[in-house]
Amino acid sequence: TLCEIGFVGAGVMGKNLILNLADNGYRVAAFDLDNQKLEAVLAQDAAEQGDKGPRVVGCSSYTELLSRLSAPHLIVLSVPAGKAVDDVCHKLIDAGIQADDIVVDTGNSLWTDTVAREKSYEGKFIFFSTAVSGGEVGARFGPSLMPSGDPYAWTRIKPMWQAIAAKVDPATGKPIERFEPGNPVTEGEPCAAYIGPSGSGHYVKMVHNGIEYADMQLICEAYQVMRDVLGMSAAAIGEIFVQWNDGPLHSYLMDISAQVLATKDSETGLPLVDVILDKAGQKGTGLWTAVSSLQLGSPAPTIAEAVYARAISGLKAERVKAATVLAGPAQNLFSEEQQADMIQALHDALYCAKICVYAQGFHLMKTAAAEHGWQLNFAEIAKIWRAGCIIRAVFLQSITEAYERNDELENLLLDPFFSKQISVYQQNWRKAVANASLAGIPVAALSSALSYYDAYRTAVLPANLLQGQRDFFGAHTFERTDKTKGKTYHVDWSRPERPMVKVK
Length: 504
Ligand code: 6PG
Known about the structure:
- There is one protein chain.
- Helix 8 (200-228) packs across helix 11, helix 12 (301-313) runs antiparallel to helix 18 and helix 15 (378-384) runs antiparallel to helix 16 (395-405).
- The protein is 52% helix and 8% strand.
- It has a seven-stranded mixed β-sheet with strand order 3-2-1-4-5-6-7, sandwiched between helices. Strands 9-8-10 form a three-stranded antiparallel β-sheet. The chain has a two-stranded antiparallel ribbon with strand order 11-12.
- The chain is built from 19 helices and twelve strands.
- Strand 4 (74-77), helix 4 (83-94) and strand 5 form a beta-alpha-beta unit.
- The radius of gyration is 26 Å and the shape is globular.
- The longest helix has 37 residues, at 336-372.
- The protein has 504 residues and is α/β, with parallel strands linked by helices.
- It folds into three domains: 5-198, Rossmann fold, CATH 3.40.50.720; 203-456, N-(1-d-carboxylethyl)-l-norvaline Dehydrogenase, domain 2, CATH 1.10.1040.10; 463-502, 6-Phosphogluconate Dehydrogenase, domain 3 (Single alpha-helices involved in coiled-coils or other helix-helix interfaces).
- 6-phosphogluconic acid is lined by residues 108, 133-135, 209, 212, 281-283, 285-286, 389-390.
- Pathway: Carbohydrate degradation; pentose phosphate pathway; D-ribulose 5-phosphate from D-glucose 6-phosphate (oxidative stage): step 3/3.
- Catalyzes the oxidative decarboxylation of 6-phosphogluconate to ribulose 5-phosphate and CO(2), with concomitant reduction of NADP to NADPH.
């Protein structure tokens, strides 16, 4: 019998998506240039199936892959983002792929590459994309899927994607989790929704990753304050995170942070986190989000700060040198009573800053949608991030509800639930940022979120002076508060008594 779906790439993500599809009753044909990877997925399928027979067919060439699939062919690419995607597409063309066949890219591709690819492969095959979040466990037992592109392709793929996606209990908004091979979660709302035209799904996934960067950085800043100001051990901080994970900060990232902090190094017996070098890696998606926000003029400072925080962590050798040269404030450790206060302040700061990060991310998506003519459904996007993906959190249910109340919401901060939350917790947020600064601890993400909040709620910013400066040195003109909007003026700053020149 022919298979319904083919895979190119049986690496970590590919292998797990293949097994997830197989668990959901689909027959999968798979090909990987690296024969060991192919053998590994076949072996795992055999081990999980026992004597029930294989569900995955291994192929030794692109031609064989096509011959094993029912027409029109549906082929999923699970290869690294970038050149590899086009290499595989060309190989598929050489192997005889047809105009009505569908190729689905599931990598972390740059969204503009996806748009270009859809155009360049037109007439050769249908290039569709599905951004995937959730890491290897997500891929295996339920990822969050952000498909976009040709609507015909989506009707074909939809049942499969909804079957393999993570599921949410509609009554609680919480993930239904079961990590058992051969026993997939079939009930609940699937975290797979059509995002829009080509590129929009990868754009949304890019913003997801930007939020992921900021979420992670915020947790790391709270950790550093507890470590370096409160003098707490990794295990003690881990316990605080366990407590925090029980409230509004409940999230996958909080949970795994607690687990990382609780883990001991098998070699030294020390907390594992204490032997991990403080030099962060990155593959680019957070950077792309920050760049896009700068290009569109949609402020996402906390996401940008999270990227910069990784960059400055990368200057390890310079920092080690600078630490012996540059002075900080005199150390003032907290009394025990103040410690408890500071921990609570950090909790509240994290919560408020997190609201701002999502406000920035959703604002960016709204701006991009207007720019590119996408009809993004923000309640739907928040919904499919409730389970399966890296930023999954109870918090996403509140965001879903905010956009269900008002799908035109200009900024999440203006939703009555979130504005109330910040008004309740902001004093502690300010205290945490102020105390961290007084103690010399960098809290770029926590404080940039606070500045974002304060700027967004300020009716009159100092940009009036800035416009004066621009007009002074470059005759760049300004608008007047007391004249018609859009009319611009220039002053001869050496003779301001002379009448202003109306420029436009
Ligand atoms: C996800 C993750 C995933 C990947 C990150 C890691 O949603 O499943 O975001 O896509 O692990 O891109 O990114 P960095 O290596 O840049 O931290």
